[in-house]
Amino acid sequence: MGWELLEQWGDDVVRGEALTGGAGVNEVYRVRVAGHRAVGRLGRRSDADLAWETALLRHLDREGMAVPVPIPTVDGRLVADGLVIMTYVEGEPPETEADWGRVADALRQLHRLTYGWPQRPGWRSSTDLLRAEIGTKVDLGAMPAEAVARCRAAWERLSGRTACVVHGDPNPRNVRLTADRVALIDWDESHVDVPDLDLALPHNAAGLDDDAYDVAAQARAAWEAAVCWDPSGTDRFAVERLAEVRAI
């Protein structure tokens, strides 16, 4: 099945141009549903995985956070064989230190609202990976042993902290600012983990002390290296992020 699934949102759904992001994981397009702009995302995630994400977004919307809101099919489903349709979110990416301070506030609101949230099906947190080797995109068995040891040393510093939902990828492309709100988009990497993973922000916008920022930055670099690693070890981004993880 593919984009013909759009018909499950009605007879007047139109697919527009492709959007950047999600390369190799999802196909993302602008769509119009009942005359309104929206975004469609088609990928290989299971319906259980996507049901977790859509339930999270509906919860955050009800709690007053600015997020893409899932649009149901004609018969009320939020997921159809890997396809989800969400509202289009206006805004610009953060640029200034003040902008990033607003992003930090939004991330902390996310964390407060999701303590005790169940883990995304099939995922593992960074601290789970101190023992486990595989979790969704992560396969530590594909990494050199020395690299795994470095990543685990970074994650070990997070042990004992309370977990919640993390956005997982709060880069400028995934934030939309207006004068009166901060919206977080692209929740494809969201899962339950230690909130520090979201807080190593530009300008240290979360206001962490030196040690806390080092913990967060090292854990985040290790996470991104592990998530993006390929067996050949040639993914440039993964190699660069691993290089930022302190040697033991």
UniProtKB/TrEMBL annotation:
<dbReference type="InterPro" id="IPR011009">
    <property type="entry name" value="Kinase-like_dom_sf"/>
</dbReference>
<dbReference type="Pfam" id="PF01636">
    <property type="entry name" value="APH"/>
</dbReference>
<dbReference type="GO" id="GO:0016740">
    <property type="term" value="F:transferase activity"/>
</dbReference>
<keyword id="KW-0808">Transferase</keyword>
<dbReference type="InterPro" id="IPR002575">
    <property type="entry name" value="Aminoglycoside_PTrfase"/>
</dbReference>
<feature type="domain" description="Aminoglycoside phosphotransferase">
    <location>
        <begin position="26"/>
        <end position="220"/>
    </location>
</feature>
<dbReference type="InterPro" id="IPR051678">
    <property type="entry name" value="AGP_Transferase"/>
</dbReference>
<protein>
    <submittedName>
        <fullName>Phosphotransferase family enzyme</fullName>
    </submittedName>
</protein>
